[in-house]
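The methods section describes the discrete structure representation at length, but only in general terms. What matters is that the chain and its backbone geometry are given together, residue for residue. Nothing conveys this as quickly as seeing an actual entry. For illustration, here is how one protein appears when written out as sequence plus structure tokens:
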Amino acid sequence: MGSDQWEVRDGEASGRGLTMTEDLMKISQVSRALQVPVPTLRRWTREFADGLSQRARGQGSADRLFTLDDLAFLRRVKMTMAKADVTYEAARAQLGLAAAPASATSSEVAPPTEEERRQVSRYVRSIVEDVVAPYRRQIEKLEALVAEQGQQLAQMRTLLEELSEDAARTGRGPRRTFPWAR
């Protein structure tokens, strides 16, 4: 785990070189800790603002900075939003929050910027690569094994042909042809 990564277990986080009672986390650190894209976290800070500290809401041009309580709350949000067919309104109710402020309603939320789309795309690609990588390695091993077995089979065909021709020449047995030795 790098110094800017957090390990999250049961709502608690720890990061090398940082103490949770003194340091605040940037949105990128929370993103890695919760495995949630940054644009999604930004949306959640608007939709679930009542459950977060003032600094986590990122008002104005100020960076969003998250406390351990914010991290624990966002983990609850993630679990709630992971349920099938949960709307933001239903999630707020389940989390015991009031209705969303007017600035967070979905009709007024700006569509994602091109940069946010790129970030989500990179994030999804990295997750897919992490999941697919072990299977790719296994496929490469299997392909190498198949190639090796193919070489051995070719050598065996050649040997069988030689033995069959030798037996026919020496008269030690009838010449047999094998379907695979053609």
Observations:
- Confidence is low (pLDDT under 50) at residues 1-21.
- Residues 7-110 form a domain with the Multidrug-efflux Transporter Regulator; Chain: A; Domain 2 fold (CATH 1.10.1660.10).
- The first helix runs from residue 27 to 34.
